[in-house]
Design a protein that fits this description.
By secondary structure, the protein is of the alpha+beta class. Helices cover about 25% and strands about 25% of the residues. The protein has helices spanning about 15-20, 45-55; strands spanning about 1-5, 25, 30-35, 60-65. The strands form 2 sheets. The protein has a two-stranded antiparallel sheet with strand order 1-4. Bound molecules: iron/sulfur cluster (SF4).
Length: about 60
């Protein structure tokens, strides 16, 4: 599974970082979430899925392998 954040949509709310800090990090300067990994680790997949569903801006895009 791969995941991306659209910086034009992201509001920097930080919800995804709370849900899955292994994969998402907040860029404090730009105030947008960044993805830390190329490939989502298997044990983080359900949290990434949850983050995508809960993102208030629908900025998280998941790409299944
Ligand atoms: Fe951005 Fe969505 Fe993450 Fe909030 S939950 S920081 S809007 S990607």
């Amino acid at each position: 599974m791969k995941v991306t954040v659209d910086p034009d949509l992201c509001s920097g709310c930080g919800l995804c970082v709370d849900t899955c800090p292994e994969v998402f990090e907040l860029d404090e300067e730009e105030n947008v979430a960044q993805v830390l990994v190329d490939e989502v680790p298997e044990d983080a997949e359900e949290y990434v899925q949850q983050a995508a569903e809960e993102c208030p801006c629908e900025a998280i895009e998941i790409e299944d392998d």
